[in-house]
Amino acid sequence: MSRDPLVLGEVVGDVLDQFIKSATMRVVYEKELTNGTRLKQSAVVNAPLIEIGGRDVRTLYTLVMVDADAPSPSNPTQREYLHWLVTDIPEGRDARFGNEIVSYEAPRASTGIHRVVFTLFRQEVQQTVYAPGWRPNFNTRDFASYYNLGSPVAAIYFNCIREQGCGGRRF
């Protein structure tokens, strides 16, 4: 059985296919995230700092942030809900140096515990990416295929919980 936290958290399967990590991505809200970190909604109101490791600023990346459990973990009819989309992020920099295609929208876990997934793709070329006309029912796999991004190079997820209680998702 795999000990990969993305597999154990069912991110691989629900949102992503299995991939080999080949880039370094740091995600920092009030603290640096590790897979499965629990954060209350109040901690994710503002966009996190997203840092991409490396030194070749000519290498560009695309960041996709989705909620895998919208509107609720027991009935994710809006899976995946797009929270943020940034392209053309230079290696060795953070997401603020990229091109924000869809502005950051803070996750809201009205019921249950929601897995919020950050996926990083290495771009082959700088290209025009259009914002989808909607946020619910976004599909990271289809997006990557449409823009020829290939497999992810890094991913991390956190569990977003409402301010009072948790419930709704088994661990």
UniProtKB/TrEMBL annotation:
SUPFAM superfamilies: PEBP-like. InterPro entries: PEBP, PEBP-like_sf, PEBP_euk. This is Phosphatidyl ethanolamine-binding protein. The gene is LhFT6.
